[in-house]
Amino acid sequence: MRPEQRAMNNTTYRKCFEVCDEVKEARAGKKIRLRDYPAAIVMCADSWEHPMASAIERSGKVVRTSYEETPELEAALSGLGNIGGKRDECKNYIGACAEPHSARTVMRARPETEVDELAFSYAYRPRTKTVIRYCRNCTDVFNVENP
Ligand SMILES: [Zn+2]
Question: Domain range spanning residue 65?
């Protein structure tokens, strides 16, 4: 694993604890359900070599217009099918993963970034603090490979 990815993984892993604390605070006094936790979080940066922008985002709701501010990312996701829809190859909704959410934040900050140049940490499930595999939608759109 490249050192940059190790550093990104460490930061993303630590963020899992913050995300869980936020959920517990938001649900103070109420029962916490599994769906209160995001399914996944991941860190994205605009480059491996000289990162200028990075973001850790979570998976969650997506609508048709969610990516209209980042046209290249929107085009890449639309290559899979309708944003917010599903395709046979993957169980996840197109654009709903933590990866495109974090990519969008980075590409808003650095619009000159190419989609396939983006760097990603592993994806983590906050409530279990474990690494989860990139889904087929994400391996097809981003330059990422599962370990
Ligand atoms: Zn995915």
Answer: 3-142
